[in-house]
Amino acid sequence: MLGLMQNHPLLISSLIDFAARHHGDGEIVSRRVEGDIHRYTWADVQQRAKQVANAIDALGLKAGDRIGTLAWNGYRHLELYFGVSGSGRVLHTVNPRLLPEQIAWILNHAEDQALCFDMSFLPIIQGIHAHCKTVRHWIALCDADKLPADTGIPNLISYEAWLGSQSPDYEWPVFDESTASSMCYTSGTTGNPKAALYSHRSTVLHAYASALPDVMGLSARDAALPVVPMFHVNAWGLPYSAAMVGAKLVFPGPAMDGKSLYELMEAEGVTFAAGVPTIWQMLLGHTSANKLRFSTLTRTVIGGSACPPAMIATFRDEYGVDVLHAWGMTEMSPLGTVCTLKEKHRRLPEQDKMKIRLKQGRAIFGVDMKIVDDDGQELPWDGKTYGDLHVKGPWILDQYFKGEGGDPLKNGWFPTGDVATIDADGFMQITDRSKDVIKSGGEWISSIDIENIAMAHPAVAMAACIGMPHPKWDERPIVAVVRKPGVELTREQLIAFYDGKVAKWQMPDDVVFLEAIPIGATGKMLKARLREQLKDYKLPDA
Amino acid sequence: MLGLMQNHPLLISSLIDFAARHHGDGEIVSRRVEGDIHRYTWADVQQRAKQVANAIDALGLKAGDRIGTLAWNGYRHLELYFGVSGSGRVLHTVNPRLLPEQIAWILNHAEDQALCFDMSFLPIIQGIHAHCKTVRHWIALCDADKLPADTGIPNLISYEAWLGSQSPDYEWPVFDESTASSMCYTSGTTGNPKAALYSHRSTVLHAYASALPDVMGLSARDAALPVVPMFHVNAWGLPYSAAMVGAKLVFPGPAMDGKSLYELMEAEGVTFAAGVPTIWQMLLGHTSANKLRFSTLTRTVIGGSACPPAMIATFRDEYGVDVLHAWGMTEMSPLGTVCTLKEKHRRLPEQDKMKIRLKQGRAIFGVDMKIVDDDGQELPWDGKTYGDLHVKGPWILDQYFKGEGGDPLKNGWFPTGDVATIDADGFMQITDRSKDVIKSGGEWISSIDIENIAMAHPAVAMAACIGMPHPKWDERPIVAVVRKPGVELTREQLIAFYDGKVAKWQMPDDVVFLEAIPIGATGKMLKARLREQLKDYKLPDA
Fold it and tell me: What angle do CA A250, A253, A258 make, to 5 degrees?
């Protein structure tokens, strides 16, 4: 027997309609690529998103067609979020930090019909447009008079000219909430990038969950600053959740240096900010050097990579700002866990609270998680045992666009590629990447733990721990080390340094001294390349 | 093109599984019918809800079968919430304050197969069981040794004996999220009561929305006390939203006097409470008389009827407790609006904030509302114009159980039966019931406004305003008045009292002095009966 409640699909167009109707004068403030500050309201976003929808109709694009964006965080990008998805097309946000040939590859793979780009990226488009087979419309996110005369890009039009003649009257189509709304390619550290294809349902459910008090805690009293880019996993869904609750949005544009961010936060009364640790490092550098304080900021969500303990402590103790450690993935829309303490933790000593805050946090309702061993058996939530982290839920990927890579699920769960512990209170902590963990005699050794110890040695400039094949133990860890210039360090000295810091069986079997360890574009060590480099290496006892 | 996210239905069983897994040691504290305090955890709720599911299976009940409850707020009722709905049956909560014959009528109409009742209600069941044609299983919510020997009720079993032998292992069935989960009959002021039939989808979406910061703002740091009964619109959904966020739940059982509530709140660290104004009046009476303070309570949601301004002021100014005015209906699961101020209101003078707090508040995302005139034309949101309040959304009724009363919707919107204004910021204020508003010459006059002015006259004990047929104006207001004992008051004096308080055309045409005005069981004036009583009345100029 079915219930007798009304049947309304969860659609992204409802979010912008709600924001315009209930928070019509709520502000959206953007630092533009041009450098100046642009200011308007949720009612304006709705009007212009409807102009976008009419403009797309005028291009003759069909439902489900992909429209790419190559843009910073700003109001025009926001209009595209609602106008493209609301009208039934798929918003494809592209990461401008990729190499031009990767961008062209992605546009071709997604079969984008149109591409909207900030003028910062004109040189990229000039370089690749001839190789983008499906893109028929190039739209520069600027005023008509800002468009250079001879770009060499056929059919290039300015966004404002494109919208200019369109009506702000538009009736959003109503369709199945499982319809695709937006897509984002993963960074693709191995092989070609693959795309997550989000739906209206997954996006709206994610918005509800992410605004909850124990997650981002968003309300109509907030001014939210997404420093996390709108070109990567929809700025953690903030454009949607802000519309849902009527929060003010503040966009930094391309100016993400400490000074620019700080000035914007103070000028606009920002209460909430979201970003990766490196951004906050720059911000804290600026505030510390200039003895500045935050007058309205109450909390910041930090994700993307593990947040250094010192940063959490500095934000809390020196600035009175709560840091919420979070974890997610492109394949998870992205939010999986956020580290908010429970009532039972309220009276703990500060150092015990800090231990919890360093974890990636608790799952949000809508995300199920478990850790499993090599055989897929679930492991206990004791805060010590670690295993492969698997997740499932309505905003988690079922398969990649075009089925690339085959079925990614294991028994209905998505393997995150992370190794983690989960404690009895449900707080998860990432300990390693699955492909980097060393499996020795049925036990797992965290490569990160081994590296961190080596890094703590005064003679070590950089260290990478990888597993090497072993006839008896399957794998044994070795540590590749770059010595600091002019400093002595022997294999024996470094191995002795591990004494008392890890169990005997976790200690590295060998040390390999190198001139350099391969590093990728985002600053992460490329262990796959290191393994390739050391392919002829043999363990001392193997 | 469909998105490629996982397909997980929104099910009530997921809520209890989530609470048990992530907040397994989170407490549920209940004052029992027996008077003592019972204390256990979300993990226990899950185990016993699964025992309930196995026990229902053992009775041979089918998916969709209705199971009734006649019970106070307490842990066994909570187990039934999850065990009945989670196993695919429909939880039918029945209001024990109805007349026994009404209860029997409702059980028959719902075709309940089983009924679970608190021992407080044994006399009711003894009186009606022979008239309940479909109920085959009577379950008393008590220990086996508390069951009297000769109740006269066939097949009566104690809840604990019923659960006792059942396994706590149970795999929740997975089904369409639109499946019926629970039902609640309206009070039925006109004609027979009609039932809203909620779905798993509507319940889970409502839980997400009601936990948002601008709604109830629930988190794992809260201890929530639902004084609103679980037998009426699921205690405003608190059992579900508390499970979703891992909040502690505190149940008052039948003891809703000021002293019992206060002691429970203090003993259990209650941070959040929800109830109707009369309950809080009793609570404030107790705290005021005994000069008590709330040490943990931060906020209370008040709904069910309009909250007196003095109560909001007392809670805020004397106790430092935020009062959130809310509005909803049985047909709305129930939440429609909650009055939380926006950032723009933060710097307003206190008296201006109070004017906003007296409104029923802003719509939650998921609820669309509008006010319309007699022709169904939408009226402006100016805070002055009033019209019939219509709503729509995924947790709002589409039709009543068994299609009773035909199609209740108008152009896809549910007419609430309330008359309201909505201001430019989206704050809605109920001004009257649709059936009581007086329609005079195309303009509407609020009967409540006219009554409130009369009530402010020192000689008036009670006043009721109703519309009377008029050949030219359709209707004109008259006011029926009960004078205070031994006080003089003439028609002319009272009409003169309206001078300057309302526009000329809104002033009552006549005053009718009565010995008494008919009052219903819940303390509300019965205007239908008053109209019947005055059916031969003629307006002076009609």
Answer: 85
State the complex-level ipTM.
0.92
Q: What is the DSSP letter of A397?
A: B
> In the structure encoding, which two tokens stand for residue A369, read together?
């998680």
The DSSP code sequence of A117-154 is: E-GGGHHHHHHHGGG-SS--EEEESS-GGGS-S----T
Report chain A residues whose CB lies below 8 A from the CB of B371: none
Say if CB A364 and CB B18 are below 8 A apart. Answer: no
Q: Parallel, antiparallel, or unpaired: how do β-strands A90-93 and A66-70 relate?
A: parallel
What are the residues whose beta carbons fall under 8 Å from the beta carbon of A526, sequence distance 6 or more? A518, A519, A520
For the whole model, what pTM was predicted? 0.92
The owner of tokens 């969950």 is: A209
Reply yes or no on whether the pLDDT at A465 is more than 80: yes
Average pLDDT, chain B: 94
Catalytic residue at A413?
no
Q: Catalytic residue at B504?
A: no
Residues comprising chain A, all counted? 542
* Residue B363, helix vs strand vs coil: strand
pLDDT digits (tens, 9 = 90+) for B417-461: 999 999 999 999 998 888 888 988 888 888 888 988 998 899 998
Nearest CB among B2, B22, B245 relative to A178 is that of B2
Q: Give me the residue from A213, A217, A363 closest to B22, CB to CB.
A: A363
CA distance B432 to B386: 9
- At residue A95, what are phi and psi to the nearest 5 degrees? -80, 110
Mean pLDDT of A225-248: 96
User: Any residues with CB less than 8 A from the CB of A30 and at least 6 apart, and which?
Assistant: A37, A38, A39, A73, A74, A75, A250, A251, A253
Strands A27-31 and B90-93: unpaired
Check CB contact under 8 Å for A213 and B219.
yes
Closest by CA to A224, choosing from A175, A278, A268, is: A268
Is A179's pLDDT higher than 80? yes
Gap between the Cα atoms of A68 and A495, Å rounded: 51
| Helix spans in B211-319 (H) | 233-236, 238-245, 258-268, 277-289, 309-313, 319
Measured between alpha carbons, how far is A14 from B523 in angstroms, rounded to an integer?
A: 40
Query: Rounded to the nearest 5°, which phi and psi values hold at A510?
Result: -160, 160
pLDDT surpassing 60 at residue B522:
no
Count A/B contacts: CB-CB distance under 8 Å: 216
**Buried-state track A288-298, b at ≥16 Cβ within 10 A, e below 16:** eeeebebeebe
Instruction: Provide the residue type at B4 as one letter.
Output: L
Assigned token pair, A488? 């002595």
pLDDT computed for residue A342 by the predictor: 96
Percentage of chain A lying above the pLDDT 70 cut: 98
pLDDT in tens, B194-227: 999 999 999 999 999 999 999 999 999 999 999 9
Per residue in B10-25, pLDDT (tens digit) is 999 999 999 999 999 9
Q: Which one is predicted more confidently, B57 or B470?
A: B57
Q: Do B340 and A214 touch (CB under 8 A)?
A: no
